[in-house]
Amino acid sequence: MMHQLFSQVLGQRDLSRAGDLFSLEDDEIEDCLSQALDQIKTISCSPDYLTNDNDQAVVEICVTRITTAIRETGSIGRHSTALVGLWESCLEHNLTPQAESAEDTPHAKIASDITSCILQNYSCPSVMVLAVPVAVRFLQRGSRELSRNMSSYLSLAAIAKADLLAGHTEAVTISVLNGNHMLLRVLPSVYPRQPDTIHRHLDDLTAMMSQLESPEQQHLIRLIQMIAEQHPLMLSPQVPVLISYLGQQALTEALLGALVDVSQASPSSLVSFLPTLRTVGQQCPSFVGHVVKIHGAVGIISEVHAHTSLLYLVALLGSMEHSFHHTLLLEIRALTDRYPSLLGGTGKDIYRMSNSFSAIARVLERWLDEKSACRSKSLALNAARSRSVHSDVWDDGEGVELSPDISLLNTLPNQLAENQEALSTERKVAADGVPPDPTLLEQGVKDAEKGQREEKEGKKEEQEEDDRLFLHLRDNMEKIRVFCKDTKQQIPIPEHCVIEDSSRGCVAKLSFSCPLKGHYCLYAKSCFNLTSRQPHLWIHMLLLHLQSKSSIPLCTKDVCIQRLASLWEKTQLQGAHSFSMAMTQHVTPHRKDLNNLQVQLEEVRFFNLFGYSEEEGGWLCCMCNNPEKATVLNQEGQPLIEGKLKEKQVRWKFIKRWKTRYFTLAGNQLLFRRGKSKDELDDFPIELSKVQSVKVVAKKRRDRSLPRAFEIFTDSKTYVLKAQDEKHAEEWLQCINVAVAQARERENREATTYL
């Protein structure tokens, strides 16, 4: 049965009593919420509702009261049928305002309030089953705000239960193509269940990349990566468009990875774009590995294509650094195994010499050097043919011009072109039947044996040279050392870091301790803990600190770096930037970011408890930094500080006043008396070991003075106190923080002793 007040307000449309609904306890009306929602649906669907201001006001107030009660009682599952029924009924009415600046229509207001309630409970399965189909219908209706809220809900639903959205993939994709780019994040979640639906719209989806903001591009890139991994042939027609996006540096690495997958399934689709890809590799050497793999895939098509790819790959052997030799030789061997005549029949002999790739590289280079004796004669006899082949190597097709983010070179370096011409001639000599020098092969065996011995020693070096992070740290060691030296007295480095999820995203849980751990140390057996919403910045600082302590460049194989990479991955969406990519964007953080870290440390009063010690070369707690003060502060029975403070009294929600109390900080307690004098009786202790944190009350934007008020949070109550002035407030804050740290440390010692 409906509550009497609800019956009166809804039955008689009594606006004068509608506000009284908020005086009722949530539990009083929880049983009748579904009935009230059904009656609201009847009222809102009446013919005169759009012109009846009284009815609209009654409905708006009642919907707000009902959604509040549902939230407070956690009864969304019980009332979801009626709630979604009212929500769905709004679709039968106009939801679009007449003008851009006009306010929402009456039914749009109802829909918005219900959307907010459903959003708060997006992970409830019983609600999702009812709400997702209705939310999809809202996508093409109503205001931008309503559509944006629906997109947020569907994005969250896709994370919690993608199966429910899979049946609506077509509607979601159409909404994306119509400009609702927020929903792009849904497509990777539903793709494994509805690939054909997305394949039908692939042309339009890939074409919209340039219209998107960076976060939206990352969701589309993730979708493209999934398609390349699972159905690479579907991307074959999109190759020209994808190639055109390579100039956007934020997309290059991911797109090249997708193109490698496409080249394995459809190598012919990449033939015309080899010159463009070579230019990308030349401009950004870190991407050469991808370009090499694509050349290897294209070379498998035919002996002509293999010959063209080999000329490029072998030229790189002579011009690229050692770190790329492993990948290059794998592709070279794959092509020469497929088409043995390309090496004049000597390929098997060369590869049998050793399992060492570095030794094979030396044999190939020596063989090419020995063949130079035949080169002059061959150049004269085959000049025309050589020029023709040379032209083929660098003119595979039109290619696609890169966007302006990466400047293009019209010609390749002269040295690389000379290498190509020489190699082209060598290959012709071999093809014409000129055998390799036997002494060369004999020498090659010796080199291979030597190479095998060196292989184990050089293995770590090879891995490092192929390591983007290693190269970055190696090239910037001095900058990093100077940066850490300049900032070590401004920003402390945490001893421990953990990444956790919160309602507002990933946070870093940081722990700081005192390395000296003296007799009166505040953190001998505990830590100062800080929660930061800037995990990426702290991880970068940790990396720089580790590198500054090392005399050699760190690499991704080091355990400490692997741990940092693991932390980084916990902060990232799937398919986002890798740890190495992110850490190599900038050598050091920007000054603004460092200032933000200092502000955060100040807000949690870190600098009240710690100070940098030149003598120790690190951050010590204030007791270890000032042992002479510690002796005074720890005298038995002596108050650390005492005096008058004002305590905020809250009687009703909007009635607040300050009451003067006399406070004494001594031992493990903060004592206060009801009166203004220390002689008045009735001590009310706050146990310092139960204090969770002490924080400054947020200042108003226009108030640039130091704070006078601060809060003490315990496990059962919050105290808001105000000092006489800023100086006294700072003094109280420092003393309370020190006393709290001492109390915790004392408690930890007692627990350790007991154990």
From TrEMBL:
Transmembrane segments: none annotated. GO terms for biological process: regulation of signal transduction. InterPro entries: Melted-like (IPR039888), PH-like_dom_sf (IPR011993), PH_domain (IPR001849). The keyword Chloroplast does not apply. Residues 638-741 form the PH domain. It is found in: Cell membrane. GO terms for molecular function: phosphatidylinositol-5-phosphate binding. Residues 420-467 are annotated as: Disordered. One of its GO terms (cellular component) is plasma membrane. Gene3D superfamilies: Pleckstrin-homology domain (PH domain)/Phosphotyrosine-binding domain (PTB) (2.30.29.30). This is PH domain-containing protein. It comes from Gouania willdenowi. The lineage of its organism: Eukaryota, Metazoa, Chordata, Craniata, Vertebrata. The gene is veph1.
